[in-house]
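Handout, tutorial session.
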Amino acid sequence: MAASTYWYGKALLQILDKQVDFAADTIKVALCSSSYTPDQDAHDFFDDITNELATAGGYTAGGATLASCAVTYDAPTNVVKLDAEDVSWADATFTARYAIIYDAQTGVASSSPLIAYVDFGEDKSPSAGKFTIQWHEDGILTATVS
């Protein structure tokens, strides 16, 4: 099964309320096990996340910082795109099912807004190898303005 990316329901509100500046803030991606159950409606800050991987096996709790975060608008298609460079963990030995994208600017979980999550569709278990999340060619997330 292919990986799918989903907005957290309150993410657009937080962007419009200026709690999230995708291009300027520290945006991170954390990994969770299959024991985490995403809730697009109820989960709004990083302290709602459960079963994040512990610091071990090449992963550091809190996740990795996304580089080159950008927000663009394509007028012919009316699509706003959030994108960043692919992210990877070298020498990874862990099992992950979800990637959680969040704004870590405050450094406090209870005030770090959730943006989106990636469901890999199954557990991913690298063994002493590089684990990479390659974002879709159309970006991490898109929104169509209509």
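The second record follows below. Compare its token runs with those of the first.
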Amino acid sequence: MKVLNLPRLALASAALMAASAALADGDRAPRITPIPVYTQECGACHVAYPPGLLPAASWQRLMGNLPRHFGTDASLDTTTTASLSAWLSAHAGTRRQASAEPPQDRISLAPWFVREHREVSAADWKRPAIKSAANCAACHTQAAQGDFSERQIRIPR
């Protein structure tokens, strides 16, 4: 008769539960505390999007095209641009959900984003309080803190 080693069994069970929880979490990237210059410069116009939402190549193209940043001149001095580019690349998405470069380097066109928001109708995106899929903070009440969990969603009417 084989005797079970309960401490090992408990440890293996805990590891399996942790792995399952990570997979159930949708392969989400860990939250990264933004550097102050990122919050100050990028967060002045929109949510300072977590760098893990895009791959490094997308961030590099976005930072290299700041004079034409989605129809706006978001130019920065070369030192700030270099610093932000390095930080964004270092923390860019490498997980399954964010490793593919989305069309036009738009987070809102990434396959994972479209899948997560499939219940949102075109009319909802056009509500005056929302305006577009890029306005995360309209529905994600903790977006500025990098929390996009479903528990924190309040869709404005």
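Points raised in discussion: Residues 1-27 have pLDDT under 50 and may be disordered.
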